[in-house]
Write a structure and sequence with these properties.
289 residues; globular
Length: 289
């Protein structure tokens, strides 16, 4: 007993480990180096994921009978169709706000009737697909990352690989196809809702009848602007589904990793949606479309 007390006293009297002096300049370059290395690893992992996904897509086209259509339609309902109310309500108010701001600003120049063209161009070209993509980035990308990540954390994906089932065929490709099918539909609904919001403002504020509203849209905006917005939908679907599934596949064995990857999926998907929309805008501007 005395020997044990002596050991405890010696341990309590031991000198604390000296702390290494902080070297802010060196630590800065250390963080920058780690960030560059992390970016390179992230790019490499993304390329690997894209390669696996392309292989899964190729297998699906070669043998469509092996596509898990039940999973595709179930995911399409949860990821897309259940999002219709929030997409419609959000774009309705966006169209109403654009119409109200346009009417107020253009009334100073006596050109408030041109608010119809402002609503048409903004909703048909930009806001319909952008609002849809941002909502799905927060809703579907996080859901995909959480679902796949929880399976990865519980080692269910490892069990699938042991049984000879490719996780990209069973988990990633159905989510990829489901979002590819639902985003164009949601974009179309967002277009109708946005124009409905603009029509409500034009009717109540400007006294513009619905027939005149849609006639000005047909004459001065045209259907081409609608197809410009719809052309972005497949790209948004591929990117959002890819980001969500990739972050889910990168989850480790702890809950902290799951939360970190879900957060990364939402942030990256939102950033990618805005970046893609900006790139499309620049390309169409150069092509004079």
């Amino acid at each position: 007993m005395s020997r044990l007390i002596e050991l405890v006293q010696n341990a309590s009297q031991a000198e604390p480990t000296p702390k290494a002096p902080k070297r802010s300049f060196i630590d800065l370059f250390d963080r920058l180096g780690r960030g560059v290395v992390g970016l390179g690893v992230n790019i490499f992992d993304t390329l690997v994921f894209n390669g696996h996904l392309l292989v899964a897509v190729g297998r699906a086209f070669r043998n469509p009978g092996k596509i898990r259509w039940a999973a595709v339609f179930s995911l399409a309902e949860r990821a897309g169709l259940d999002a219709m109310p929030i997409v419609a309500v959000t774009t309705f108010f966006i169209g109403a706000v654009v119409g109200l701001l346009g009417a107020n600003m253009l009334s100073k120049f006596g050109a408030q009737v041109f608010a119809v063209e402002l609503i048409g161009f903004s909703v048909l070209r930009e806001f319909n697909i952008l609002i849809t993509a941002l909502l799905l980035a927060g809703r579907s990308a996080s859901s995909f990352a959480a679902e796949i990540g929880s399976m990865k954390m519980n080692q269910e994906i490892d069990a699938m690989e042991v049984l000879g089932v490719d996780p990209f065929d069973a988990l990633v490709f159905p989510r990829f196809l489901a979002l590819l099918l639902t985003i164009p539909l949601l974009t179309f609904i967002a277009t109708l809702a946005g124009l409905g919001g603009g029509l409500a403002v034009g009717w109540s504020v400007l006294g513009l009848q619905p027939v005149a509203f849609f006639q000005r849209l047909v004459d001065n905006v045209g259907v081409q602007q609608f197809w410009v917005g719809m052309s972005k939908a497949p790209v948004m679907a591929v990117v959002i589904a890819g980001i969500g599934c990739r972050q889910g596949m990168e989850v480790g064995g702890d809950v902290e990793s799951l939360g970190r990857r879900v957060t990364a999926a939402v942030v990256q998907a939102i950033f990618a949606a805005i970046l893609i929309d900006a790139v499309f805008a620049l390309v169409y501007m150069e092509l004079d479309i």
